[in-house]
Amino acid sequence: MDILNRKEMDSQMLHFIDEQLQEELLMQKKYINYSNQLFDSELKDICISGSKKHKENYDSILNYLTAKEGS
């Protein structure tokens, strides 16, 4: 029974991680889109910085998953 609970939790955890990956990609795209619409260079830089941060978050999650697969 404990093994079944672990599998369900693993499946649920993978679902949450997948959702987070999709959210990070969406936020990155939104920030890029916003930066392309702005004329104020300070606001544009803030959006570009936000985009980079969400890309870093995405890469970190993906690296964590691929490191776990190799274990």
Q: How would you characterize this protein structure?
A:
This protein has 71 residues and is mainly alpha-helical. It has 2 helices and no strands. Helix 1 packs antiparallel against helix 2. The radius of gyration is 17 Å and the shape is elongated. The two termini are 25 Å apart. The relative contact order is 0.12. It comes from Anaeromonas frigoriresistens. This is Spore coat protein.
Number of helices: 2
- The pLDDT mean sits at 87
The assembly state of the depicted protein chains is single chain
Number of strands: 0
Distance between the termini: 25 Å
Tell me about the largest β-sheet.
none
- Order of SSEs, N→C? HH
The helix content is over 70%
Please state the structural category. Answer: mainly alpha
In short:
The protein is an all-alpha fold. Helix content is 93%, strand content 0%. It comes from Anaeromonas frigoriresistens.
Name its key features.
single chain; 71 residues; mainly alpha; 2 helices; elongated; Spore coat protein
Layout of SSEs?
Blueprint: H1 2-37, H2 41-70
Helix pairs in contact: 1-2
